[in-house]
Design a protein that fits this description.
The chain is an alpha/beta fold and 136 residues long. The protein has one domain (3-122): Response regulator (Rossmann fold), CATH 3.40.50.2300. The chain is built from 5 helices and 5 strands. The protein has helices at residues 14-26, 40-47, 63-72, 90-98, 111-122; strands at residues 3-10, 30-34, 49-54, 81-85, 103-106. Strands 2-1-3-4-5 form a 5-stranded parallel sheet, sandwiched between helices. Helix 1 links the parallel strand 1 and strand 2 (30-34). The protein starts with a strand and ends in a 14-residue tail after the last helix.
Length: 136
Amino acid sequence: MPVPNKILIVDDSPAEGRLMKSYLEQAGYWAVALADPALIEQTLDVERPSLILLDVVMPGRNGFQACRELKAHPDYALIPIVLVTSKGTPSDQFWGREQGAQGYVVKPFTQEQLIEEVEKVLGKPQSAATGAAPGV
């Protein structure tokens, strides 16, 4: 069972991973960063996140491939995935959704853009991005 508000960040750039982790934690999420896409499944088994933020351009196993493989696996298929990448053309975004991603954030992004997409995919009120309390 997924841990509520826990998000796995998969990005081969430690700086990008730290940035996303900081943004998410400031918005009240519990974030875990992973730099090696080969370890996604092992990390999912331990951390049980409620969402995955997945870079596309990574060595060895790109994000499109990882997304497709996770969505084909019965243990991971229901975990929502948001691709976070510099590949921002409409065809890239279309291809990401074809691989099973539920969301897409183009780098560089603001904290508000990242949190808005996370909350949209998780089906939460979009209050953290603005700093407003829920229902305000």
